[in-house]
Amino acid sequence: MSQAWEMDIFAELGLGCIDFPAFFDVLRSTQYQGWLVVEQDSVGRSARDNSWSPFENAKLSRDYLRDVLKI
C-alpha cells in the first residue's frame, strides 16, 4: 500500500483514471436519485509536497464536480 501512496493513487477528481463523465452519464440515464459521497484521501502526499494543501485539494475536486460534471 505504501508504494500505491507514493504513486498518488488518491488523485483529485478529474486527474485520475476514472471516467467520471461517463459514470455520471449512466447515473443520469438511469435517473439515479440517491446520495453520492466524495471522499478524498491524502496519505503520504503532504509529506512529499510542501505546497500541497487539503483546502486546495478539496477545491479542485469541488470545481470539477461543479464545472465539468455540472453537479
Total beta-strand segments? 0
Mean pLDDT, all residues: 84
- Total domain count: 1
The coarse silhouette is: elongated
- Helix/strand-derived category reads mainly alpha
Enumerate how many helices there are, as a single number.
4
Question: Strand-and-helix sequence, N→C?
Answer: HHHH
* Largest sheet entry: none
Roughly how many Å apart are the termini?
32 Å
Helix content: 40-55%
Radius of gyration: 14 Å
DSSP strand (E) fraction? under 5%
Show unreliable segments.
none
Layout of helices and strands:
Elements: H1 2-6, H2 20-29, H3 45-48, H4 54-68
Written overview of the protein:
The chain is mainly α and 71 residues long. The protein has one domain. The chain is built from four helices and no strands.
TL;DR?
The protein has one domain (2-68). 48% of the residues lie in helices and 0% in strands. The chain has helices at 2-6, 20-29, 45-48, 54-68.
